[in-house]
Amino acid sequence: MRLDTSQQMRTDMKLRMAPRMIQSMEILQLPLMALQERIDQELSENPILVDLRESTTPESESEPEAETTASSAEETASTEVDDFGDWDSFGEGHRLSRAAMSEESDRKHDAMQNMASRPESLHDDLARQLGFLATDPKIRALAEYFVYNLDDNGFLQPTLYDLVRDYAGDVTTDVTIDDAEEALSLVQRLDPAGIGGRNLKECLLLQLTPDTPLRDVLQTLIANHLDDIGQNRLPMIEKKTGYSIDVIKEAIEGLSHLNPRPGARFQANNNQYVLPDLIVEPTEHGEYEVRLADDHTPQLSISRLYQKMLKDKQYDPATREFIQKKIQSARWLIESIEQRRNTLLKVARAIMEHQKDFLDKGPEAIEPLKMQQIADRVHVHVTTVSRAVDDKWVQTPRGIFALKKFFGGGTVTADGEEVAWDTIKQKLLEIIGKEDKQNPLSDEEIVDELGKSGLPLARRTVTKYRKALRIPSSRQRKQF
User: Fold this and answer.
1) Which of these, 139, 116, 89, lies nearest to 312 by C-alpha position?
2) Domain count for the chain
3) Does 461 share its domain with 345?
4) From CA 402, how far away is CA 396, in angstroms rounded?
5) C-alpha–C-alpha distance, residues 370 and 82, integer Å
6) Which residues contact 319 (CB under 8 A, 6 or more apart)?
7) How far apart are the C-alpha atoms of 423 and 430, rounded to whole Å?
8) Contact 204, 260 (CB under 8 A)
9) Residue 233 within any structural domain of the chain
10) Which of 1, 60, 69, 433 pairs with 350 at a CA distance of 20 to 30 A?
11) Which residue segment(s) compose the domain that 388 sits in?
12) pLDDT value at position 426?
């Protein structure tokens, strides 16, 4: 019986940890402007939180004292949310009832209503939808974790195995691949249709309904013939499927109405003002210093007055429970923000150390870099790196760039030199841009031109990158 009770306590702890972990992921993923808006919103809704920059109350009365800001993820996981026994005692202050605190929270919230807020993101929208679904809390928490690992197009790029491993490592919980399949199925039920697909085929198949015209034909074409459709090989499709050309054309027309990027409509306006999260500056010794650009971000603390009230037995249990919940929420936020700062700074420094040639010479000197390399270097999971660089910008001596700009594959030349994809892309576009449009270059001739520029690549490599850039073949580029 004791063992069962112990197991139940561990299960309860795991479920309590899940919201904290999800909040930490969400805060990490926010760019600076969105983080500041999130903090302002929390300040308006939680009277326990104080911005030290704006506090004008005399210290002898109720001046807030900064709480410890998340010394480490391990300490956060092991700290009980109701452990307030080590706080100092303070002098008498103004006493507020629970109703008065709620009124103060409402007043702050009302003051925020006229402030513009950022558009709802894909992840915000999906997380909100999940809240309306009746399901096991464990599966819903895992589904939320998946939601925050979707890319901008709504695809789930990491494998379920990697996601389960990362999730289990973050919350010390027991999850299985079967749980992951159930959670993914939950995500794939959300709107817009196609969300949570692990590749283009699955994304498109998820958008088919029993009412979709030619549904069976579309299932066959999507599952087996997307490449044939792209190459306009309709006779081959006819031969393999037995469908007539007319039926195939009608199905392709239906296919054109499906959305290959269901999450794209949530992407921010490209004209939106960019506020860098990080700044890279040269030092006197020819090196580079990386720092966070968060000088104007509110400095959060927990009100000393409410800390004192929590321990005061004169207040009724309901009031003290209200304060405890607000303090717990405030602590989680402060810890998540500090964890974001530490993770973002470590990741950015590792990126800039790898891309020093870019800082010295410019974008043409960007080196091939995979997120796994940075994850190994700073000892975090690759999905943590992905969240850290998502929608983050860095101000460098070479201009302002998205952190994702510094990641990309490459290839090895015939001389054994590793070359970044961006370098090949720029040169490939330059060569094709200068070609004779009436006599365009074949892939073999492009190979020769790249070789003259010091990029000896194989023809198949050139063909692969040309297709990745969606540049037609020489025959299709020819102008008469």
Assistant:
1) 89
2) 3
3) no
4) 11
5) 41
6) 97, 98, 101, 309
7) 11
8) yes
9) yes
10) 69
11) 278-292+338-406
12) 73
Residue with tokens 């029993």: 210
Q: Say whether both 131 and 217 belong to one domain.
A: yes
Q: Which residues contact 91 (CB under 8 A, 6 or more apart)?
A: 60, 61
> Any idea which residue has 């936020």 for tokens?
333
Question: Residue 326 has which token pair?
Answer: 């607000």
For tokens 């800082």, name the residue. 359
Strands 393-396 and 278-282, by their bridges, are parallel
User: pLDDT, tens digit, for every residue of 346-403?
Assistant: 999 999 999 998 898 877 778 888 888 899 999 988 888 888 998 889 999 888 888 8
| 194 and 284 inside one domain | no
Retrieve residue 409's tokens: 């594959």
Question: What Rg do the C-alpha atoms of the chain give, in angstroms?
Answer: 27
Question: 150 φ, ψ to 5°?
Answer: -70, 145
Place of tokens 């959300």: 190
Distance between CA atoms of residues 19 and 144, nearest Å: 9
Q: Is the pTM of this model over 0.85?
A: no
236 and 355 belong to one structural domain: no
Of 392, 318, 337, 317, give the one whose Cα is nearest residue 31.
392
Residue 462 lies in a domain: yes
* C-alpha to C-alpha distance for 250 and 247, rounded to whole angstroms: 5
Same domain flag for 251 and 225: yes
Pairwise CA distance, residues 449 & 435, whole Å: 11
On whether both 417 and 383 belong to a single domain, the answer is no
Paired with 419 in beta bridges are 411
Q: Looking at the structure, do residues 146 and 214 belong to the same domain, yes or no? A: yes
- The predicted-structure confidence for 95-106, as pLDDT tens digits, reads as follows 444 455 455 455
